[in-house]
Amino acid sequence: MGRRPSISVALILAGSLVALASAGANAWAALGPIPADTDWLFEDDAPDPADRDPLEPLNRGIFGFNEVVYTWVLDPVANAYEFVVPDPGRRAVRRFFSNLSEPVTLVNDLLQLKPTRAGTTGARFLINTTVGVAGVFDPATAWGIDGHTSDFGGTLAVYRFDSGPYFVIPVMGPSTVRDAFGEVVDAALRPDTWLLTPGARLAISASDGFTSYEIERERLKALRDTSVDFYAALRSAYLLDRDARIQELLGSE
């Protein structure tokens, strides 16, 4: 029986990708002012997703770079991770990171003036952090307290900030100006940002981002295999799904 690959290799590679993604996200600030004369989310006749992509040539170039990274780095790391860590262990890791993001959801629930959702989030975080051993287990769901996610991009939408142009962030993938800015704020709201050393924060962020990719990669593969133009299909899927989530948020309490 062959020797299993070390999980530390996965963490080192993922950490390097997070650093690259951060550098890429900062570079987008140099693209110039964002047009303020559009409000696609709140119009009845929202335009085609392609009309929300004025940076398409640049986006396609970054998209191609991301595909290379996913194919030659993230996918092999994900395969090694699945080989090393059994399914119950991967589920526990996902629950841990989900619980770590609950304070972000709580703050955004409060900023959005959603007291019912905030109460649910606060209860889940308290129960899962204590009884659930730092979120490794999820007794809150078993007790009928279901979770949800909320982010600062959604908070900006509640206060009627438009999404801005669609663009692709190196390594991190599809986004909009509003959501990319929201990601920066959400990162500042995470407790590990303030409680851990820079090295530990990098490891946590890398592992969290990698875990998210590990969850989504099968759906990405299915979309890639059934699309004539994967870039356009992913753009449409992201924008339509995001708009639907915002509409659901606007109707919640």
Description of the molecule:
Residues 1-44 have low confidence and may be disordered. The radius of gyration is 19 Å and the shape is globular. The longest helix has 29 residues, at 56-84. It contains eleven helices and two strands. It starts with 6 loop residues before the first helix and ends with a helix. It has one domain (7-30, 40-250). Strands 1-2 form a two-stranded antiparallel ribbon. α7 (152-158) crosses α8. By secondary structure, the chain is mainly alpha-helical.
Number of strands: 2
Q: Beta-strand percentage?
A: under 5%
On the 0 to 100 scale, the average pLDDT is 81
Order of helices and strands: HHHHHHHEEHHHH
How many helical stretches? Answer: 11
| Helix content bin | 55-70%
Structural class: mainly alpha
The residue ranges in which pLDDT falls below 50 over 5 or more consecutive positions are: 1-44
- Radius of gyration computed on alpha carbons: 19 Å
Strands side by side in the biggest sheet: 1-2
**Intertermini distance:** 55 Å
The largest sheet is: 2 strands, antiparallel
Question: What's the domain count?
Answer: 1
Tell the overall outline. globular
Task: Tell me briefly what this model is.
This protein has 253 residues and is mainly α.
SSE arrangement:
Blueprint: H1 7-27, H2 56-84, H3 87-100, H4 102-111, H5 115-130, H6 139-142, H7 152-158, E1 166-169, E2 173-176, H8 177-189, H9 191-195, H10 198-226, H11 230-250
Antiparallel strand pairs: 1-2
Helix pairs in contact: 1-2, 1-10, 4-5, 7-8
Q: What keyword list fits this structure?
A:
253 residues
